[in-house]
From TrEMBL, chain A:
SUPFAM superfamilies: MoaD/ThiS
InterPro entries named among the record's database cross-references: Beta-grasp_dom_sf, Mopterin_synth/thiamin_S_b, Thi_S, ThiS/MoaD-like
Annotated Gene3D superfamilies: 3.10.20.30
Protein name, UniProt field: Sulfur carrier protein ThiS
Taxonomic lineage of the native organism: Bacteria, Pseudomonadati, Pseudomonadota, Gammaproteobacteria, Alteromonadales
TrEMBL record, chain B:
Family label: Belongs to the HesA/MoeB/ThiF family.
Domain THIF-type NAD/FAD binding fold stretches: 14-248
Annotated source species: Alginatibacterium sediminis
Gene Ontology MF, one: ubiquitin-like modifier activating enzyme activity
Protein name in the entry: HesA/MoeB/ThiF family protein
GO cellular component terms, A-Z: cytosol
Pfam entry (one): ThiF
Signal peptide: none
Domain of life: Bacteria
């Protein structure tokens, strides 16, 4: 089919475009509060998530804030 | 002819710094003249403070309102059994002065917030966020942003650690750009556990970066977020970008 593959926290993940970063996070039920999303080594501000199109081969990393110390 | 900045005793005590071309006598004098604010004196703050004290950082301001509990001793290696029940800042002050009696250590034993937090950030050359909750992390971030004070932020839980640094003299990206809308978490050291060397690793890196900053050395960590996986000894580094809608720093 018309699928593309991205790397999600180091693991291959297939999806059908067009899909925005927000849509993927929603589909995967990722907790978005206190969450940083990086694509290809750079954090994408949450203000850009809904417009950010996912493309073949990109590397996506999800980080949740740790508060402890 | 060079004028010596350090006295003979200091030249001996800090001789291993003087051998470092990036620090040397001028860098050591900068350390002696520096003032660092540590917010939180638990697993991060108590470890970072030891290194700053030993390195001769002249003034430490340490803030925490907790008393020392038995469950702290497994990782907060600055403290002794005899300190149980004491305010952490009082116990820490005593221990830090026993490491280096030439320091000035000022303690803040109530919750550092609002105008007092902003004033303390303003007075510091650099702030180490060593706290254990999101509300304090946001408050420290805001105070540093408002006073243009560089912030070195560490965090740890279980086997994971995080390190991020914001130079508010020159950048707009902040902790809240990185982690927007964060809420207090179910997972903290009291519920998820923590292994001492994991939090100690993050604290040691905070101290390393503070010393480098004071000695005016560059660092790739400004504007960068790093995640440490203590199980697999893996690091991930990503560049932080400012959020144009950030409630803390968007203009």
């Amino acid at each position: 089919m018309n699928q593309i593959q991205i790397l999600l926290n180091g693991q291959p993940h297939n999806l059908t475009p067009p899909m925005s970063l927000s849509q993927l996070l929603n589909q995967l039920d990722v907790e978005t509060k206190g969450t940083a999303i990086a694509i290809d080594g750079e954090v994408i501000p949450s203000s850009d998530w809904s417009e950010f199109p996912l493309e073949q081969g990109l590397k996506l990393q999800v980080f949740h804030a740790i508060a402890g110390g | 002819m060079s004028v010596s900045l350090l006295n003979d005793h200091q030249a001996r005590r800090y001789s291993r710094h003087l051998l470092l071309a990036d620090i040397g006598e001028i860098g050591q004098q900068r350390l002696l003249d520096a003032k660092v604010l540590l917010v939180g004196m638990g697993g991060l703050g108590s470890v970072a403070a030891q290194y700053l004290a030993a390195a001769g950082v002249g003034q430490l301001v340490i803030a925490d309102f907790d008393t020392l509990e038995e469950s702290n001793l497994q990782r907060q290696v600055l403290y002794r059994e005899s300190n149980l029940g004491q305010l952490k800042v009082e116990a820490a002050r005593e221990q830090l002065l026993s490491i280096n009696s030439e320091l000035q250590v000022r303690t803040v034993s109530r919750r550092l917030e609002g105008q007092q937090l902003q004033m303390e950030a303003q007075l510091a050359d650099v702030v180490l966020d060593c706290s254990d909750n999101i509300a304090t992390r946001y408050a420290v971030n805001t105070a540093c942003k408002q006073t243009n004070t560089p912030l070195i932020s560490g965090a740890a839980v279980a086997f994971d650690g995080q390190l991020m640094m914001f130079d508010f003299r020159s950048t707009s990206a902040c902790y809240q750009c990185l982690f927007p809308n964060a809420v207090e978490q179910q997972l903290n050291c009291a519920t998820a556990g923590i292994l001492g060397p994991v939090v100690g690793t993050m604290a040691t890196l905070q101290a390393l970066e503070a010393l480098k900053f004071i000695a005016q050395m560059p660092s790739p960590q400004w504007g960068r977020f790093s995640h440490f996986d203590g199980r697999n000894l893996e690091w991930m580094h990503v560049k932080i970008r400012s959020n144009p809608e950030c409630p803390c720093c968007a203009s």
